[in-house]
Amino acid sequence: MNKKKMIRLTALVGVATATGVVAEANQAHAATTTTTETTNQTTNASVESTQAAVDAAQSTFDTAQTSVDSAQANVTSASNNVTSASASLSSAIANKEAATPENIASATSAVSSQAVVVASASQAVSEQAGVVSAAASVQASAQAEATSASASLSSASANVASATSALSAAEAALTSDQSTAANNLSAAESAASSASAAVSSDQAAVDNAQAAVASAQAIVEVQSSDVINMSAAYITALKNYLANPSSANAAALQEVAKGADYVKELQQKFKSDASLDVVVDPSDPTVQEALSVYAVNLINHLRNQYGLTTAFGASANANVAAIDFVKKYYDDEDWNIFGTTGSDGKGHNKNGLDAYANQLNTSIAEDAGSGLTTWVNGKATMATTTLHNLLYAVYSDIATMLFDDGGTNNWSHAQSIFEDGTILGTDGFNNVYLGVAFDKYGYAHYELYNATEGNHLGNNAYSLDVQTAAQALLTNAQASLASAKASLQRMTTNLMVAKAAVVAAQNQLAALENSSANDLVAVTKARTQLASAETSYQTALATYKQKEEALKKAGDNLAAAQASLEAAQATLATAKAKLAELEETVANLTNADQLLAAAQAAYEQAVANLTTATGNLGAAQVDLAKAESQLALAEDTAEQAKVRAAIAAQVDQQLNGSTTNDRQSAGQDATSLKTNGRALTATVATASAAKQKQGANQGRLPQTGNDDQEASTMALVGLGMLGMATGLYGYKKKKLTK
Predict the structure, then answer these.
(1) Which one-letter DSSP state was computed for residue 460?
(2) pLDDT digits over 210-269, tens only?
(3) What is the Cα–Cα distance from 715 to 698, expressed in whole angstroms?
(4) Which of 207, 440, 523, 680 is the most core-located residue (most Cβ within 10 A)?
(5) Cβ of 478: how many Cβ atoms within 10 Å?
(6) Strand runs labelled E in 201-274
(7) What is the mean pLDDT of residues 12-22?
(8) Across the strands, what pairs with 461?
(9) How many alpha carbons fall within 13 Å on the CB side of residue 387?
(10) What is the DSSP string of 638-667?
């Protein structure tokens, strides 16, 4: 079943539960086999027949279900029609009640008034349509003129492009050779300028190298003659103070040193030489060597006067360390040791000294002096870094440390120079090497390192022999001078060649200028044509802009006229709709009786249709119930036929599997039978009693036909029923759902 579920209980098949019936014991085995085969065929045919009846009943049920569904749809539709007809009837009744002469007269008057409004709106639409037509004509004319102006502009633009191309070709012809010649001249002049600059540069290098040679020669004289001599009284007073730095000994030392006046006297003894006035880099290795050797020789000369036999050393490694320390802890940290007045500085960077000493794993002492900075009106100024100023700064700083070092310094600079194995009370200065460096403020730093094999500060030591150091400077300066002179000679030759190339290029350009008269005429003509084409283009452009503006204005006017027309048409449509509504009202009021009668008839017909549809639905439901009952009966009959077929098959299996002795013992009181491996005990009656029992069972079983073979085998079926009663087949009541 497709539309609904059908639930029922199958019919119970009667079975023999106490006494089984068997065929006569002495019946031949062959006859028994034939009978069971015939019974099987009969029961199988019954199954097929009952299943066909089920299929036919199912078809009848489906047809009935379809008829019910269709009838239900008709009822729903008829019900909706009644509802609609009822609403129409109510409206017609209300219309009839409103159809008074006064209302009809009022509605008729409203129709007349609205007709006037429609006529007026229709006239406005006609007039505005004329305005749109005129505006469209103007717009079409403006479009044609704009198109023509655009074509003229395109033509003028093409003429300008053609004239420009012609001018470019003429100018190219005129300037091609001249441009090449001019470029050649420019390149030659540039090469000559570069060569001249190179000559000037190399000449300056030669001059500087010559000055360096003269400076190196002068250093020998300075190194040999610039010494600082201490009086015996000063030495005695200094020794007394260093042995016992009492106030009395400090005053005595200050008296002997004569303070600033004596420093000025010593500074005036510095041997100045014009050859030393050459600008140098204080960090240049050659300059560094000269400065450190100069400073160490001055200090060692003082230590010798003092009576010390251990001397300070100078090395490239110590100089490199000094430069690195000053950059890291003074320049990079913006550490101004003296400040701008000499009294507002930060002093020594003690944290930096400690950190650098740990880095090098050695002892470091630092002396500092004004170096390249002098004080003018109480403020520091930077002197020029010439070799003369550098040497003078070292000489002046060391002299100042000896003779102008009282006050807050307590002669600590002098102490650092004249102590042996210790500096300012700190041990570990047994092999002192001096490094000289200048910070970015111009102040000089004298770093005293204790050199060891581990820190390598004594490596790359300088010779303290004045003549040897000066000779090294002289040799380097002379080599630089020779190289500079050779380069100057090469650059001078290059300059001569470059100047000759300039002359040749100038001659080539002059020759080309004399032979380009025809090209110049062509250029002039092309320029005139281009000017004329550009004038025509500007005229065409102005006309085009004017026509475009006129076209835009005409388009705007047309759009405005069309908008007005659409508004008038909308007004007309609204007026017509209102008129139609009023006319319908008049018609409804005038024909109220007819409309009411029609609505009443329609309503009555809808009610009649609903009654008919409802009756049809009831009849269809009755037919469906009958079909459902017939289907249930057919399915029950089919189920019973399947059971009989199964019993017949079981009996056949039992009889075919029995022996001759089993058949001969059929008359015994108790027999043990085996079916599908399960024991079955039955009580056997006599043959006549079996026939009587057979008739009783046959009367209780459903019949599917008049097949005599089925009736003749019912005695055997009884044995199968006994198996069913004990659960051999397991057939029980069940639900059948479709």
Answers:
(1) S
(2) 666 655 655 655 555 578 888 899 999 999 999 999 999 998 998 888 765 666 766 676
(3) 9
(4) 523
(5) 16
(6) none
(7) 36
(8) 315
(9) 29
(10) HHHHHHHHHHHHHHHHHHHT--HHHHHGGG
Strand partners, 379: 376
By CB atoms closer than 10 A (0-12, 13-18, 19+), residue 450 is buried
Mean pLDDT highest for which of 161-165, 312-316, 663-667? 312-316
Predicted pLDDT of residue 685: 40
What tokens were used for 25? 């014991």
Confidence bin at 677 (pLDDT 50/70/90): very low
pLDDT band at 35 (very low <50, low <70, confident <90, very high): low
* Residues 530, 160 contacting (CB under 8 angstroms): yes
Name the amino acid, one letter, at 328.
Answer: K
Q: Residue written as tokens 């066909």?
A: 52
What number of helices (H) and strands (E) belong to the chain?
17, 11
CA pseudo-torsion sign 141, 143, 147, 152 = positive
Q: Which of 55, 17, 43 is nearest to 640 (CA)?
A: 43
* Residue 380 to residue 314: CA distance in whole angstroms: 30
Amino acid at 338: F
d(CA 92, CA 87) in angstroms, rounded, equals 9
What is the Rg, in whole angstroms, of the alpha carbon atoms belonging to the chain? 69
Q: How far is CA 309 from CA 142, 415, 683, in A?
A: 117, 16, 151
Distance, in Å, from the CA atom of 619 to the CA atom of 492, rounded to the nearest integer, reads: 134
Distance CA 279, CA 315 (A): 23
Q: Which residues lie closer than 8 Å to 247 by C-beta, 6 or more apart?
A: none
Residue 494 phi, psi dihedral angles, 5° rounding? -60, -35
Q: Find out whether 230 and 402 touch, Cβ atoms under 8 Å.
A: yes
Q: Can you state the angle between helices 466-514 and 285-306, rounded to 10 degrees?
A: 160
The better pLDDT of the pair 511, 489 is held by: 489
Pairing relationship of beta strands 678-684 and 670-675 according to DSSP bridges: antiparallel
Judged on CB neighbours under 10 Å (0-12, 13-18, 19+), 394 is buried
**Which among 252, 176, 193 has a CA at the least distance from the CA of 515?**
176
Cβ neighbours for 234, distance < 8 A, ≥ 6 positions apart: 253, 256, 257, 403
Give the tokens for residue 136.
């469209």
CB 402 within 8 A of CB 417: yes
The structure's pTM equals 0.42
CA distance 558 to 138: 8
Q: What digits encode the pLDDT tens for the residues 536-571? A: 899 989 999 998 999 999 999 999 999 999 999 999
Structure tokens at 656: 């075919």
Of the chain, the end-to-end C-alpha distance in Å amounts to 5
